[in-house]
Amino acid sequence: MATIRRVPHCSHWGAYSILVEDGAIVGVEPFEQDPAPSSIIQSVKEWSAPERRILQPMVREGWLRSREGSDRTGRGSDRFVAVSWDEAAALVAGEIRRVGESFGPASIFGGSYGWTSCGRFHHAPSLLKRMLNLAGGYTGHVDTYSIAAGPVILRHTLGSDDACGGKANTLDTIAEHTETLVVFGALSPRTAQNEAGGLGTHTLEGHLRRLAERGVRVVLVSPLRDDIPDWVGAEWWPIRPNTDAALMIGLAGEIVKAGRHDRDFLERCCSGSDRFLAYLTGTQDGTVKDAAWAAEITGLDRQSIADLAGQMLATRSMITVSWALQRAHHGEQPFWAALGLAAIIGQIGLPGGGVGYGSLGGVGAPFAMAKSPAVPQLKRPIDSFIPVARITDMLLQPGAAFTYQGETRHYPDTRMVYWAGGNPYHHHQDLNRLAEAWTRPETIVVQDPNWTATARRADIVLPATSSIERNDIAGNRRSDFVFAMKQAIAPLGRSRSDFDIFSMIAGELGVGDGFTEGRGEMDWLRVLYEDSRQDAAARLGFEMPDFDAFWEAGHARFPVKDNHTYLAAFREDPAAHALPTESGRIVLGSDLLDRLGYADCPAHPAWLEPYEWLGKAEAPNQFHLVSHQPAGRLHSQLETGPASRALKRGGREQARLNPADADRLAIADGSTIRLWNERGACLATATHAETVRPGVVVLPTGAWLTPHGNSGLDIAGNPNILTPDIPTSSFGQGCSAHTCLVYVEPYAATAPDAFEAYAEGLAAQAAE
Ligand SMILES: Nc1nc2c(c(=O)[nH]1)N[C@H]1C(S)=C(S)[C@@H](COP(=O)(O)OP(=O)(O)OC[C@H]3O[C@@H](n4cnc5c(=O)[nH]c(N)nc54)[C@H](O)[C@@H]3O)O[C@H]1N2
Ligand SMILES: Nc1nc2c(c(=O)[nH]1)N[C@H]1C(S)=C(S)[C@@H](COP(=O)(O)OP(=O)(O)OC[C@H]3O[C@@H](n4cnc5c(=O)[nH]c(N)nc54)[C@H](O)[C@@H]3O)O[C@H]1N2
Ligand SMILES: [Mo]
């Protein structure tokens, strides 16, 4: 009788054991210490299904024939030809050498943004950068799609991005001390399922239960009522999307109008308050910013805003802001305005008071204190980067100037793109614009386990194993444990681990020894773990088991800090704990931004009309699109897994809208709708939902782009065919995905099931 092996493993959505019998996965069990495991763990079996896996190295026919002179419009439709690993590695190394020598290493784009697997050793983007650094360098990226405008403005105003990186007040202190909690965006187990690098325990629900038990007044400011579980008993303030800065400023202005702002806190702990106060009182522009002003812009009730301002002053109040709010045009402003409001109230640095910014599972949870395991990327020989979401601008405008954090730089002349562990045809905005830009580089290499939309648009495709086909280690700066991610099944087809692939290419480039340092997989895991263990012991006196004991047990606790109140010491003595900002204090009026004079990022927190918002909607069927994170998967990963499929309807993604809107437009529940604007169009299945604010349509991200014939219509429901590719501002240059108007209408024609259409398209391109 065959025995079942239980193999410990971890993904961004948590830890689990894979049950393996006769080399096949027969079950998945959650980590026993996790109080609220994610349903996505049940989807990992999908990695062992070859349907969408890349099984061998492949090269686009047109590229193989004509190399850098190929017809690049063939990307995405040309057939692929199988090659050996030796041939593939030689081709890739040859291109790195050719482009580096002819145009300079800045012409190789190796930013390679993406979440890849949670393993910290086979971490594809890090290994790519390590290899390219040894080979002469590359153009990289700064910040993330998750947060860019946010950290840029916080680094300037607080001197660090700790407050949005998981080091603001921890949720345990909020659960015990806060009396009024104002949530902008979400506090949702949906998004808290995931943490970059994995996590052992999902704790958000426990803290929310404690808040509910204590009878804390919770106000949810969001276009979506289910952005917080209903049992929390929050009041729902269905704000017009992208107008949060106006609400925050109106609350602050109301307090100032009553003369009740904390003058002592503003004086001792802030700089430039005069500028902000002048904006609030209207001495600057003649408009008083108060509850009435905010009500007009946000669509909320004037009296409720005025009352809330009073209550935030009178009780211990905490403001939380989701990262989503800064993933929008002028996204710097809601982050800065929340800080301005918290400073006016004056509770920053008190337990359960002030402001924090978060979204992932580990944000607000106790944070890791010791050095988390990470493979070194080595020294960068050249300093070339772009703000992460400016990829299309870079490809379309070589040599053009861009600004970032007050500096002016120039885009490189990109000849080669190497993407490993990310999916730009998932994550980037305005995919039709990206598609045009995608024809510009001479050579595109994609390394991924799956035939993603991006892989299908590459010249050279390198099949990586998924994490369950190799050994790795999980754990990150917000993780409570480190986990052994043990190999559960044999590699599929001829796929190889990311480390093996890069070792091979590094060898071709003559830097193999520098890349591997003579170590194999298990040697590296030992080194990375021991590095963290020694740091925990030396700096914190925290004992972790040695590597062999850890590997045997499958997990080890990591030292964490709980009960943390952000800026407590600074509040006590601002001079002794000066912040690394232009004034040493919290910046509410900025000398730097005053000098820069950007119209889209002024010198104090402000409400600026977004590029698109409901205030600009002209037609009765125009909606604000909220393309939020999918509940049943991580981005585009495991899209065909059971947790993801369970939330699809009629062969595509669900678009939720308010029944009143749906009835008005004769859109039946369960019917197919077309969402479109001047940038693109997609189909989705309409679902009536009272939890969605009228005027808003919600379409999650992550459907695999599936164009219907040559029509350009995406039938799977990928919202990035619709979203605008505009920067948040000249200062932050972040992604603005949550700023988007779309038209919605019934779709009468028939269209194929998206999964079947994807499979057919793939078979035509890459029969193996
Ligand atoms: N409209 C809209 N767009 C958005 C957002 C939004 O809110 N709205 N959110 C944005 C945000 S916050 C983010 S973080 C991005 C996410 O964007 P991405 O991080 O690019 O999305 P993923 O689907 O996680 O892509 C990871 C890729 O890595 C591959 N992969 C998995 N494991 C491995 C491995 O072991 N090795 C290799 N080589 N590859 C592997 C997967 O197959 C997948 O193709 O999307 C952004 N896009
Ligand atoms: N299940 C699952 N969890 C995930 C991910 C995933 O793909 N799947 N991705 C992870 C990643 S990479 C990240 S960065 C985080 C992101 O976490 P968030 O940025 O918090 O996630 P979103 O789902 O984009 O947005 C949260 C909510 O913000 C609200 N919102 C949107 N626009 C506005 C606005 O203008 N005003 C207000 N008040 N609310 C608004 C929407 O209703 C939305 O549901 O999630 C992580 N968690
Ligand atoms: Mo993200």
From TrEMBL:
The keyword Ligase does not apply. GO terms for molecular function: electron transfer activity; molybdenum ion binding; molybdopterin cofactor binding; oxidoreductase activity. Residues 9-46 form the Molybdopterin oxidoreductase N-terminal domain. One of its GO terms (cellular component) is outer membrane-bounded periplasmic space. Keywords: Metal-binding, Molybdenum, Oxidoreductase, Periplasm. GO terms for biological process: anaerobic respiration. Pfam families: Molybdopterin, Molybdopterin_N, Molydop_binding. Belongs to the prokaryotic molybdopterin-containing oxidoreductase family. This is Biotin transporter BioY.
